[in-house]
Amino acid sequence: MTKLMVVNAKGSPYECGKQYGDSVSNLIRKNVEIYSDLYFHVSGITKDEAIKYSLRYKSAIEEYCPSIIEEIQGISDGAGVSFGEIMMLNVRTELLALRNKAIRECTSISITTPLARPTDVWLAQNWDWLNITQGTAILYKVKQNRQPEHMMYVEAGQVGKLGLSEAGVGLCHNWLDSGVQKLGVPFIVLCRLILSQDTIKNAIDIVGKVKRASSGNFMIAHSSGFVVDLETSPDNIYILEPNNGLLIHTNHYISDKFCVEDRGLWSGGGDSLIRYQTAINKFCGVRNTINKNFIEKILKDRSCGDYSICTTPSPLEGKYDQWASLASVIMNVKKLEFYITHGNPLKNKYEKYNFRCI
To answer: pTM for the full model?
Structure first.
């Protein structure tokens, strides 16, 4: 695996986007090619159709966060690709949800007191995604106007994903599928909005404030020790709180409120149940001894073969159905520590990244 590219951007939304696009134009162009191919093979739509579909979300983004549109324009200009192509990368969750097939994605974990030490608030996730996209993600560190600085592990060209902010807000997320989509703020953009907020209250409020385009799970932690999990569909939100300091989420709805709607689980997503129970069992009998090494072992777990917390590509699956843990992230939100493996955690070390953009 090549070294993780880090983009440091500072200034207005357009300036940040332009710096971003200039810095990793080669990776952005590669993602445009990969996703154009993926959309056709996975959802049956051409690149032109994907762009046209993505541009329908522009007005919803402008309504709640016009600065994101300015930033996307900057990325487009910096990378030398069209505005529609960058939109296509940022509406990828909604585009890929057009297929009626389970998406095997991520395992997220948060640990706070009494399970963790009072000095620690842990938030962790394996980012599981299609293996064909391997090596095209970056660390995007951005200080935009009066917003707190935040760092996010994103696919090149995207404006948001999992990450940590200087304001002590950490975010992990999981794909969910209620079978409902609407014209609203895309999942990736909503991730960015959460991390852009200056307080944990505003980070929570933004999820309910915006008109959401699709379903998703947002695990949000704060340096104060507060942790919450928000299961969402475009129409509903269900709140999950820690049980004895522990929260775990995979790719199925835990709330009974959503169970019947869970298209992802009932269309071949049973591995989510396996990963969920495996992760919970790892914490049985553990008290106040959680550290980074303990969390690493959980994220590297291979006890259930192809359906483990850490997944590797199966040769039995086709090119567009091979899943892998493409990265693993551990955050100590209280200490503002951010560790990531750029690549599968079985083969790559957790590297530490700090704030201070430019």
So the answer is: 0.95
